[in-house]
Specification:
The protein has about 550 residues and is an alpha/beta fold. The chain contains 16 helices and 25 strands. Strand 12, helix 11 and strand 13 form a beta-alpha-beta unit. Bound molecules: adenosine-5'-diphosphate.
């Protein structure tokens, strides 16, 4: 007996379907961009779709063919959006490159992906001028600006002008349909250990991720929203926001390269931003600016925070001082990135506020399409009791299967080992205690660096804190707290150590505190623990 087949239209999940939907059903909704050139640019989803078609025509005219990779070195802006859609929509692969990486790493990544063309924002041209001789496959460099801003002199032969190319096309282009498993974009992991590795997303994984990412228990994005992604478009596709925004047809505000507190607050207010997304360090800058200038937010209601643990003190500050709801989320380059989001269930409605906040500070529940496990050193499943921690494994529709140009599978019997250590409670709330390489191992027991940092961040004088392992002759490792104080405040070592009393078991309290003017961050805004561990390797703990 043969199964009865479904009798619905078979339409492959194409990234172009997102932008055509936005253009047809939200055609006059705005995309506002702060340009690298300094001014504000405004147009609509309909304009974006038309220009994306022209980008597809440009790429064909340059001789690029299905499967070819095109690199972008660009901030969040409308031209970058056009490349997202114009490249992927025409079966090319949009390879977003993080301009904040070391130049040698950027060259390595562009060569590994074999990018045939590069599209570059105006202020990143000097970087490309320097790198170009080492870029083996690159045949075209397109400067993402208009004729008036083209440099008088450049070492790049035949530097192309984006606006000239786009405006020369007529837009008479029909988005092609092809296999939904075709590659659409590539993003490299930041390579804190070894060379970066390319995660290759598909049309199918991207569209599914966009739909689930917009759901009420994820970002909760709607056509009523004005979304400003602070998370860069070169960091895991800005967490899928350029796609999710098109699916729901919300207004988009693109902040350009300036992400300091003042620039962000100004544009939030000017454009009526209701929702945003970014890593904790960005929000530190914004909160400091708004608090020290006695400002408010008139329209800002929700923000998605992920990429590093969001300290509970940050959730409290946003919620209690400014009425902004924090949505804590977890993910990785390898998970597109959406994995877990911390959203309450109906059963939690009656909980006291403090208990709710405790749940909301966790990394959250798996969204539909992603499943989780935690396992011990022998690969055995650990119970979901919120206490026992183990290696976090994930699988799902938008979780990596293999890396670009790497033969060895990263999977463990079909599951992707994240390198994170976490607990999961009976309601499915996952909580990261550490990245496995950042765990502090004291006398055979593990101390969560994130717990130590979260507590420190709750102290009124602490702006940012990192807890790292320092070698110890008796205990193997003991925690050291590295602290940046808020401008104009003071605190002593004793005071901060005393601050842990009653908040964690005594043996987990840091042995020492050092004060530094600033902490080193990675190109994606995470604290560089490796660098700190090197820096403080010989630190004399008073407990030795
Ligand atoms: P990379 O792995 O290259 O540094 P990713 O952006 O892919 O860059 O980083 C993913 C990692 O970031 C996760 O494995 C996890 O360790 C950390 N991370 C992401 N979101 C959170 C979060 N909400 N809380 C704690 N850690 C997080």
């Amino acid at each position: 007996m043969s199964a009865l087949m479904g009798q619905m239209m078979r339409m492959p999940l194409m990234i172009s379907s997102l932008i055509t939907h936005a253009a047809r059903h939200h055609g006059d909704t705005e995309i506002v961009s702060k340009r690298v050139e300094g001014d504000i640019h405004r147009y609509t989803w309909a304009d974006c779709e038309l220009r994306s078609r022209k980008v597809a025509q440009v790429m064909a005219r340059l001789g690029l063919q299905a499967g070819d990779r095109v690199g972008t070195l660009a901030w969040n802006g409308y031209r970058h959006m056009e490349l997202y859609y114009g490249l992927s929509g025409s079966q090319l692969v949009c390879h977003t490159v993080n301009p904040r990486l070391f130049p040698e790493q950027i060259a390595w990544i562009i060569n590994d992906a074999e990018d045939k063309a590069l599209c570059v924002d105006l202020n990143l041209l000097p970087l490309v001028e320097k790198l170009l001789p080492a870029l083996k496959a690159v045949k075209h460099v397109i400067l993402m600006t208009d004729r008036a801003h083209m440099p008088a002199q450049t070492s790049i032969e035949n530097l192309l002008c984006y606006e000239d190319l786009v405006e020369a096309e007529d837009g008479k282009y029909t988005w092609p349909e092809f296999d939904e498993n075709t590659a659409s974009s590539i993003c490299y992991t930041s390579g804190t250990t070894g060379n970066p590795k390319g995660a290759v997303y598909s049309h199918r994984s991207t569209v599914l991720h966009a739909i689930v990412g917009a759901m009420p228990d994820a970002m909760g994005l709607s056509a009523e929203d004005v979304m400003l992604p602070v998370v860069p478009m070169f960091h895991v596709n800005a967490w899928g926001i350029p796609y999710g925004a098109a699916a729901v047809g919300c207004k988009l505000v693109m902040p350009g390269p300036h992400l300091d507190g003042k620039s962000l607050h100004d544009i939030f207010e000017a454009e009526g931003v209701t929702i945003s997304a970014g890593v904790p360090t960005i929000w530190l800058g914004l909160l400091n600016h708004v608090s020290s200038n006695n400002l408010k937010f008139s329209t800002f209601k929700r923000t998605i925070i992920g990429g590093s643990a969001c300290p509970p003190a940050m959730i409290d500050a946003f919620q209690d001082k400014f009425g902004v709801q924090v949505i804590h989320a977890w993910g990785m380059t390898e998970t597109s990135p959406l994995g877990c989001v911390s959203r309450l269930k109906s059963k939690h409605r009656e909980l006291p506020e403090a208990a709710k906040r405790k749940l909301l500070a966790k990394q959250g529940r798996a969204v539909y399409g992603v499943d989780l496990r935690i396992v011990n050193d022998h690969g055995e499943d650990l119970p979901w009791d919120g206490k026992q921690s183990g290696d976090l494994l994930v699988r799902g529709h938008w979780i990596i299967d293999s890396y670009l140009n790497v033969a060895k599978s990263p999977l463990d019997y079909g599951w992707f080992p994240t390198g994170d250590v976490s607990t999961i409670d009976a309601d499915g709330f996952m909580q990261i205690t550490d990245r496995s390489k950042d765990v502090i191992k004291s006398g055979g027991e593990w101390i969560s660096s994130i717990d130590l940092e979260n507590i420190a961040m709750g102290h009124p004088a602490v702006n940012e804190a990192a807890a790292i392992a320092v070698p110890h002759p008796k205990w193997d490792e003991r925690p050291l707290l590295v602290v940046v104080l808020k401008p104009g405040t003071q605190a002593t070592r004793e005071e901060l150590i005393g601050f842990y009393e009653g908040k964690i078991p005594k043996w987990q309290t840091p042995d020492d505190v050092v004060f530094v003017p600033e902490l080193p961050h990675t190109a994606t805004g995470k604290i560089q623990k490796l660098k700190l561990r090197d820096q403080f390797r010989d630190h004399k703990l008073p407990t030795v």
